[in-house]
Fold this protein.
Amino acid sequence: MSNKNGEALAVFATIVALALSREFDIDELNTLSCFFSALSSNICIITSQRASAVDAPEVEAEENR
C-alpha cells in the first residue's frame, strides 16, 4: 500500500470515528471500540502467521546449507 493510500485510510478512519461518535452513546461506542480492537488484533495475528508461513521455506533452506 502506498503512503498516499495510507493517508487516505487515516482520514477515512477519522471521518468514520467522528460520524459514529455523533450517532452512538458512550456505552455503544465502548462496545464498538472493543470490537474493532479485537478485530485488529486478530488481523495482526493472521497476518503474522501468513508471513511466517511464507518465510518458513527460506529459513529452512538456509538451515540446510
User: Anything to note?
Assistant: The helical segments are 3-23, 26-63. The two ends are 34 Å apart (CA to CA). The CA atoms of residues 11 and 17 lie 10 Å apart. The chain has two helices and no strands.
